[in-house]
Write a structure and sequence with these properties.
- By secondary structure, the chain is α/β, with parallel strands linked by helices.
- The chain has a single domain, classed as TIM Barrel (Alpha-Beta Barrel).
- It is built from 11 helices and 8 strands.
- The radius of gyration is 17 Å and the shape is globular.
């Protein structure tokens, strides 16, 4: 079964819009787990635009499944991670002007910097995942840098129309990069931009073990509630996996 981690950043974003204490991403995380999520993802950015250090520290105490901390390769954030000790740290690129993460890490151009961060996190007992574009060289570099997992950036696929030639092309890129990740001995994850319509084909790719999804689930939760939104996504992923097994 493909594990589903819920990214609660967008709950924190809603809270920060009015600088209130609600809605609380910690409470949302608890409901997500009760609804069947296998874990929680939260991104502690340098500018603290959504998640706060308080959220990360309380989640470490309350999350029953896996806690995945997304973070930039920044010493001050690495310090917090080494102190909090989430189950996994996913290193991602980060720009102040972006609305959300725009692409994968430059794992080759920043190899020395990223490798140092990976070693420090692993020395603290934390597993490390690298968020990369679905490209052959980037996929191979993840193992060389000491990561235990590579998360493929699915944004380009999600910007296509399901069933189109472009979607097929992007799925092929993800499949090829995924094979390289698995053949390198790493766990394979995927995420960014996935929703209830496009998640199935990605879940069906060989070797995918984990998905981290946030915006689509929080958006649906506005309409149907967060518990129902999580269960609907769990069902969408499982349908994709079952479809792959029937072929």
């Amino acid at each position: 079964m493909v594990r589903l981690l819920i990214n609660v950043d967008h709950v924190a974003t809603l809270r920060q819009q009015r600088d209130t204490f609600y809605p609380d991403p910690v409470v949302a995380a608890g409901i997500c787990e009760l609804a069947g999520a296998d874990g929680i993802t939260i991104h502690l950015r340098e500018d603290r635009r959504h998640a706060q250090e308080r959220d990360v520290r309380i989640l470490r105490q309350t999350v029953r499944g896996s806690l995945n901390l997304e973070m930039a390769v920044v010493p001050s954030i690495i310090d917090i991670a080494c102190d909090v000790k989430p189950d996994m740290c996913t290193l991602v690129p980060e720009k102040r002007a972006e609305r959300t993460t725009e692409g994968g890490l430059d794992v080759r151009g920043r190899a020395a910097e990223i490798g140092k961060a990976v070693r420090r996190l692993r020395d603290a007992g934390i597993e490390v995942s690298l968020f990369v574009d679905p490209e052959e060289k980037s996929a191979r570099a993840c193992a060389e840098l000491g990561a235990v997992q590579a998360e493929l950036h699915t944004g380009d696929y999600c910007h296509t129309r399901l069933g189109s030639v472009a979607a097929g092309r992007e799925l092929a890129r993800l499949e090829k990069a995924g094979r390289i990740v698995v053949d390198s001995g790493l766990r394979l994850a995927a995420g960014h931009g996935l929703d209830y319509i496009n998640v199935g084909p990605v879940a069906a790719l060989a070797g995918v073990e984990e998905m981290s999804i946030g915006h689509a689930i929080v958006a649906r939760a506005v309409m149907v509630g967060i518990e129902r939104a999580v269960r609907d996504m769990r069902e969408a992923i499982d349908r994709g996996v079952r479809g792959a097994h029937r072929e």
